[in-house]
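User: Show me a protein chain along with its predicted structure.
Assistant: Here is one chain, sequence first, then structure tokens.
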Amino acid sequence: MLASNESPPEVPRFPAPWSLRGHAWMVALRLPAGDPARTAFVPADLRATVKSAFAVLMCVVYDEAPCGPYRELLFIPGTMHFGDARHPSISRILVSTWDSVVNGRNNWGIPKDRADFDWTRSESGDHWRVTSEGREVCSLEFTEPTGVRLPLSTAWVPRGLGTLAQRRDGRTYYYRPEATGSLRLCRLRRWCFDPELFPDLSRATVLTAARIEGFEMVFPVARVVG
């Protein structure tokens, strides 16, 4: 796995905005006070500012993207203090292609690293396994979704919570993704993590889990400060 501060290979550049389509699994969770996962992989100058009423773990399949299809695993531990306001920020994110790594870093300051993804479906649910150079980063098993299909729109999210911020190379990137789709609830049956490669969420309490189906998303041009 190439560290986020090392030079990736040359790939085509795809500037923002991006329009994407796909589906995802989202887990809302609560971490114990003082849990190392709260600040794992967070830039040093932001660690003391992390606050976490709840955190979010996501697995995403992008079927359509300007840089081509790819898969993604990300973690948002909470909000951090950027300038005069608090914003959610991605502390750790792995994707399946170098095109996504390079363009995500350049367009939005997102600290993407590349890994290998194995996603399988069965009658009992979905299994995600993410590895790097043969080493397992994490494994997640979700049950099949059940119940009513509910509409989903980021337009319902307050601007402060919906605008993400990332700190990279002395710059701060602000961006507000917009998305619509639908979701159904599921259960997270099992998970495990390598804490050297991803925040260890094994001590977290799962608040809810859902499969987001048929989403359409726009990642805008970021506002860059610094």
